[in-house]
Amino acid sequence: MNGISEALNVLSVPGCVIWYGPLLVFTVILHRMAADGSLPRRPAFGDAASFLISIWFYALLLVLTSRGAFACLLAAMLIMVLYIANSAKKRALREEPLVITDLALAWQVIRFPGLYLPFLPCRMIAAGSVIAGGLGVLLWLLSEPEDISWVWMVIAGLPPALIVMLGLAPRSVSALLSKWLLKPFSLQFDARRDAESCGPLGAAMLHLIWHISNPLPPKPRGREDRNSGIPESAAPEPIAPPVWGDSYRELLARPPSPEKLPHIFLVQAESFSDPRVFSSAAPRDLLPNWDRLCSQGQSGSFRVRDFGAYTLRTEFAALTGLPPEALGTYAFYPYLAALRSPVWSLAYLLRKLGYRTVCLHPFHREFFFRHLAMPHLGFQEFVTMEGFPKSDTYGPYISDKSVADVMTELVRESSEPLFCFAITMESHGPWLPGRFKKEFPEGDAPKIPGLSDPVCRYLAHVKNADAMMGILAEGLSKANRPGVMALYGDHLPNLPDLITGGETTTPYIVWKTNGSPGNGVKKDIRPEEIGGAILSG
């Protein structure tokens, strides 16, 4: 009996049994609820992950506060926040759960709340915070500091220590160790499938092990290029993405003379789709420029994998030709792979051929860390919202027309071939009331019978995207060299009133100035294949 008493004393029974026991039960229940009540294919591992994460939260907070009840409450709040965020994400993005790389996006929720908070149950969060805050103050005042056992200190410090050790180990050692640890789980690096297999918390733990064991390469050293800030000696080795086809390899083997190269526009149109595909109520004449250009070029379905968000996944695939299955956990947030080291891309290829490479994004430079990623993807210039007139807005964001005007001006002033990649913002959701205070006399988009108000607002932006295409095509047609315009939707709009079922594909087009009516080609492609379509012919 004395041995048992001593063991319980070491573990600080009041803090362990009284407080941690209910916390563990609470965590396991929420973890099961996060999987919609269904057991993961590895239920024992899923519950073990719940245990490990909850005990670490509790131990860390116990060490920091020296109050068992208060630490339990804070740990329960953290678990609840994860559950609420996971539920909100699954509801908005068709059952995609939280992934470990979402931590890198957390600051954006604070920095750009208008893009995220409308999808969260803010009233429930506020009410829960008030109740938990009041209870926390009460527990703090009523409880006395406890003597914390060294065991809890070890539990609190062990996970960070292991993460640091794994991260600092030689890459060959850490990769071999993670391969051995992860082998039984057969990770797919698909957020839904891995969560279904191991539970959301279990999948997050396994993804973290892989991510730490496959770190970013060190930032290269060398003389900095005056335009891009990338060392001249650090340009990545040319690779030949198989999906780009033979045209790519021919360009590398036999580069044409610069005067024969066309200007190239590549436009990632925010939330672009053809609403006529989804609703018969959408006007048939909504997209006249799109219809005309499709009759002259290559168009079809752009097989985007994500719905309603994660622009950067489509963007990275289109620029690099790399499919998500080649990226591991970086597939969830691809720009983490381009923050410190150059990645071979369409921009690097064209730059090698003599192109001026420019990226336009009429929003904040640091959004998605693009200010760090774009130079490493081969762009010599990165123009953000500071490069556009502040008055050129349509709704809350810089208009598509303003983007088109800047692009055509770049063509007019460019003596060398130009590659301009534009990431538009005008159509970004959510499509809430009050969006068009200055655009329409009545303060909202015109009503269309059979369509909800958010869809009508969205259609106003789709119409402007179509007008942008007309401006770009005309600008290329008047240029002193041939031109190519490619445009695609980064993902479908998060509009349940318009988009039903499991559809995720958006439309795309590759149009060339030498095209003629009636010669349009229909072909469905994946985002990583659009580079080959641009380079062909």
Detailed description of the structure:
- The protein is an alpha/beta fold and 537 residues long.
- The protein has two domains: 2-213, no CATH class; 277-535, Alkaline Phosphatase, subunit A (3-Layer(aba) Sandwich), CATH 3.40.720.
- Helices cover 45% and strands 9% of the residues.
- The protein has 18 helices and ten strands.
- It has helices at residues 2-10, 13-34, 43-65, 68-92, 106-111, 122-142, 150-168, 171-182, 191-198, 200-213, 245-253, 288-294, 311-320, 346-352, 370-376, 400-413, 453-477, 530-535; strands spanning 263-269, 298-302, 356-360, 381-383, 393-394, 397-398, 418-423, 483-489, 506-512, 521-522.
- It has an eight-stranded mixed beta sheet with strand order 4-3-7-1-8-9-2-10, sandwiched between helices. The chain has a two-stranded antiparallel ribbon with strand order 5-6.
- It starts with a helix and ends with a helix.
